[in-house]
Amino acid sequence: MLNFLAQPLGAQTEIIDDRGQKIVLAQPATNIIALYAAFNEILADLDLEDCLLARTAADTGPPSLMAKPSIGTHLRPNAERIVALQPDLVIQLQGRNDALDMVQFLEQRGLTVAVFSLESFTELFSVMERLGLLTGKADLASTQIAKIKSELEYFQTHQPEPRPTIFFEVRASTLLGAGQKSMVTEIITLAGGINVVQTNKKLIPLGEEEVLRLNPDIYLMQRGPMNPNPLPLDERPVLRSLSCVPTGQFFMVDQDLFSRPGPRSIVAVRQLHEIITHWSTEK
User: Closest by alpha carbon to 194, among 223, 233, 226, 165?
Assistant: First the structure.
């Protein structure tokens, strides 16, 4: 959500989160709990690792976070433990209703909770800017945003012709692909490709026969908690018939980079741009 309010009110800072709720802090937040890993990455990018009080069970970085206490999962955090840590700011991802139920529970106990949507680079920049304001790091946030935008502009002026079609495998078992309403599609587009799955959803279950029909130029398999041990395509009885297999245009990529919007999403664009550039020169 791009429309937000930021006002210095004496020593106070005021923003509007993506619920449309006014978030007011009397002073910059210095004791923070983020209930989604991408927010920890954003805060680390703003040199705020020391302000993080805890982590969710799924968090693996930044490295310093692993020494912090766990407060449960993103969707089912331990509310009593969060309250006991007395954060001056809690950050939650907008989405499922049970996640927002936790937000209401924490607010009823006097905690300040900001809720942000994070599904695109536009939303990423908006979140970075507002977190910069809430933590007294507005200038650094602007600098980091400018760096990412500058690199994105480079990729937009160095697009291949023709652009390759790309399939992104979210999960191999009960095959799941990334649809148009995903950060993955934006990464593919910015890197110079076309998501071969045109369904206007974030995730879409597909049969292997449908993937054969789509026959992408490049096949990406994410590796991570959602897809822990994907077999290479040349070891799959059906999908090894894809035309991208003999040319070696199938790749394992890091789930955290490609499927978790954050400052490192630019690394995903960079990696995919290199893959596409190689594909283009081989044609």
Answer: 165
- Here the CATH number for the domain that contains residue 199 is 3.40.50.1980
* Structural contact between residues 218 and 283, judged by C-beta atoms closer than 8 angstroms: no
Q: How far is CA 249 from the centre of its chain?
A: 25
Which two tokens mark 218?
Answer: 């490049």
pLDDT average, residue stretch 6-11:
52
- The 3-state secondary structure of 48-114, one letter per residue: CHHHECCECCCCCCCHHHHHCCECECCCCECHHHHHHHCCCEEEEECCCHHHHHHHHHHHHCCCCEE
Q: Which two tokens stand for residue 74?
A: 């993103």
> Are residue 169 and residue 115 in the same domain, yes or no?
no
Indicate whether 259 belongs to any domain.
yes
Banded pLDDT at 274 (limits 50, 70, 90): very high
Residues 149 and 198 in one domain: no
Does residue 139 surpass a pLDDT of 50? yes
Is the residue at 160 inside a domain? no
Task: Determine phi and psi for 70, rounding to 5 degrees.
Answer: -85, 140
263 phi/psi in degrees, rounded to 5: -60, -25
Q: Is residue 158 part of a domain?
A: no
pLDDT at residue 2, rounded to an integer: 44
**What is the mean predicted confidence (pLDDT) over 178-193?**
95
Q: Which residue has the tokens 């600098």?
A: 143
User: The domain containing residue 59 runs over which residues?
Assistant: 7-153
Write the single-letter amino acid at 144.
Answer: Q
pLDDT digits (tens, 9 = 90+) for 62-118: 788 888 888 887 778 888 999 999 999 999 999 767 778 889 889 999 999 999 999
Q: Which residues contact 10 (CB under 8 A, 6 or more apart)?
A: none
Q: At what angle do helices 183-191 and 265-282 cross, to 10 degrees?
A: 50
pTM confidence score? 0.90
